[in-house]
From TrEMBL, chains A, B:
<keyword id="KW-0443">Lipid metabolism</keyword>
<dbReference type="GO" id="GO:0030148">
    <property type="term" value="P:sphingolipid biosynthetic process"/>
</dbReference>
<comment type="pathway">
    <text>Lipid metabolism; sphingolipid metabolism.</text>
</comment>
<comment type="function">
    <text>Catalyzes the reduction of 3'-oxosphinganine (3-ketodihydrosphingosine/KDS) to sphinganine (dihydrosphingosine/DHS), the second step of de novo sphingolipid biosynthesis.</text>
</comment>
<keyword id="KW-0256">Endoplasmic reticulum</keyword>
<dbReference type="Pfam" id="PF00106">
    <property type="entry name" value="adh_short"/>
</dbReference>
<protein>
    <recommendedName>
        <fullName>3-dehydrosphinganine reductase</fullName>
        <ecNumber>1.1.1.102</ecNumber>
    </recommendedName>
</protein>
<dbReference type="InterPro" id="IPR002347">
    <property type="entry name" value="SDR_fam"/>
</dbReference>
<dbReference type="InterPro" id="IPR045022">
    <property type="entry name" value="KDSR-like"/>
</dbReference>
<dbReference type="GO" id="GO:0006666">
    <property type="term" value="P:3-keto-sphinganine metabolic process"/>
</dbReference>
<keyword id="KW-0746">Sphingolipid metabolism</keyword>
<keyword id="KW-0560">Oxidoreductase</keyword>
<keyword id="KW-0521">NADP</keyword>
<comment type="pathway">
    <text>Sphingolipid metabolism.</text>
</comment>
<dbReference type="GO" id="GO:0047560">
    <property type="term" value="F:3-dehydrosphinganine reductase activity"/>
</dbReference>
<dbReference type="InterPro" id="IPR036291">
    <property type="entry name" value="NAD(P)-bd_dom_sf"/>
</dbReference>
<dbReference type="GO" id="GO:0005789">
    <property type="term" value="C:endoplasmic reticulum membrane"/>
</dbReference>
Length: 318, 318
């Protein structure tokens, strides 16, 4: 069990399957794993981005034996995730990957009352199913083959907490945490390790995209975030895996939430976690009060915004 | 804001909409609200159970003016939730309810590798969408009418933590928490209060149903749970609402998890929460180790179980 083991996980010669591997965190992680000698399979939708990504993997190659493959699949459905996994395993004698990093996902922040039915269902697909189906497909195959394995989900700081704007995204990122915490316990049955990464803001193409729909008040609340480059986030993820962390964080703010929002997942260092937890108990209420106050002050501007966009506000009916 | 107010919320003469109101927690809560003088609308699917429930509401009546109504709808879709809300508001001059209690939901525990695509999607519908669509429908209408409101979601102890067996349920219950924590912040914009209840095991018809599919190892882990009668849970829920708690709990074990898994949601009493948090920091790792050890010891029996049920386990391929 990795719980008792002090040997750090080494990607060299392991087959690593990275979803969302053509851009952002997924690409940075795929390149990092390649530079550590791993065989890397990436899956994403856009074939030209996948080609560019393969070129980057080649540049990171450290051994002639390394196998790099890319496959274009949409993995937001069970069928898509199964088909992608089949393509990935076919290149490796049908065997399941040694480690799976589920980096696919995206966020489309908006006000809840302006979200359509489609916004909410797509939010759950882009935040949750795009990873859950891969975990399901991989786990079934790995158990069939009686192999060991390693699953790493990618949640978000808003998988620990949430605020205005994230009604379509935070639920899926919390759901991933529920799934990861369940599987950490359940997959002990098969010696499959489960990890989940909670990155803060990352300066990726996806981040630029989400800022296009992000409410002003949400942008304002996030002003103080320092954010990470995807390479920094990927390095933090790999370090967490190597330290055997179940919940992985790569910045202090998210680590404060981790220490005080851990549920039944294992912590890191008891004393460090207790210290952060104590800080969080005092600091989080101050943060919340200041954010609540920002939201409250935003009311007139928000009412104006809704009226301008044709939201059918009636006169107060009291 | 309820945050500053010391006036306890009083259900008398308020219009309360209770989903899942024909059985279990929903029925007990509907009866409790009726006995406090509320107008109560209940929605569920089974019309004969709804009729029985209306009879129970009549017995709890304290004033001739109280309006009790039942409506049969399936509310696992946006369309169903909108239609149910229309029926409920039509009986009250088109006005949105003063408070909405989302008690609909169910759990179907199984081993992850034995879950079908349908098990997983239905788990999310029964755990999450059956409440999320109602919250969405109600919030939009309430903002249109510029009325105040009160939303109360019902999650579960496995919305705070999770273990073997709950891969289709815990994600939805975590997702509800992500939604509730988002909306607690966002709906400050409209003076709509948001609460979320985390009940432990409740001895309801739904509990008897879920035990039929529950893996033995999950039953064993839950052996020590004392559980609540639905009337106790309903009383705990109402007390939490009246105390202005965002996260509501009705038993000590779940309260331990609440205090140490609060994310950015407001706590209860700082000193009490700090005490519980300290206990949880020490106690939860012991609980986890013992449960992990139970799961590990369950391996041979589990492999036998999978083989008997025809799960295609291959010989170890190393």
């Amino acid at each position: 069990m990795s719980f008792f083991s002090r040997n750090k996980w080494n990607p060299a010669s392991k087959h690593c399957y990275v979803t969302g591997g053509s851009a952002g965190l997924g690409l940075s992680l795929a390149v990092l794993l390649a530079s550590h000698g791993a065989h890397v399979s990436i899956v994403a939708r856009d074939t030209s981005k996948l080609d560019d990504a393969l070129n980057k993997l080649e540049k990171a190659r450290v051994s002639e034996d390394q196998i790099f493959r890319s496959h274009s699949f949409s993995i937001g459905t069970a069928e898509g995730a199964n088909a992608a996994l089949k393509a990935v395993t076919d290149e490796h004698g049908g065997l399941t990957p040694d480690a799976v990093f589920m980096c696919a996902g995206k966020s489309t922040p908006k006000f809840f009352v302006e979200m359509s039915e489609q916004d909410l269902t797509e939010g759950m697909t882009d935040g949750y199913w795009v990873q859950a189906w891969t975990a399901w497909a991989v786990t079934r195959k790995t158990v069939e083959q009686q192999r060991k394995g390693k699953l790493c989900f990618v949640s978000s700081t808003v998988g620990y907490m949430s605020f205005v704007g994230y009604a379509s995204y935070s639920p899926g990122k919390h759901a991933l945490r529920g799934l990861a915490d369940t599987l950490r316990s359940e997959l002990i049955l098969y010696d499959i390790d489960v990890h989940i990464f909670f990155p803060t803001t990352m300066f990726t193409p996806g981040y630029e995209e989400e800022n296009k729909t992000k409410p002003k008040i949400t942008l304002k609340i996030e002003e103080a975030d320092s954010g990470l480059q995807p390479e920094q986030a990927a390095a933090g993820l790999l370090k967490g895996i190597q330290n055997g962390h179940t919940h992985i964080t790569a910045d202090l703010i998210t680590d404060l939430f981790r220490s005080s929002t851990r549920g039944s997942a294992p912590g890191h260092n008891f004393f460090y976690d207790s210290l952060l937890n104590g800080i969080a108990m005092v600091a989080v209420p101050f943060w919340r009060s200041s954010v609540d106050s920002l939201v409250r002050k935003h009311r007139p501007e928000h009412e104006q915004h809704l009226r301008e966009r044709g939201f059918p506000i009636q006169d107060p009916s009291k």
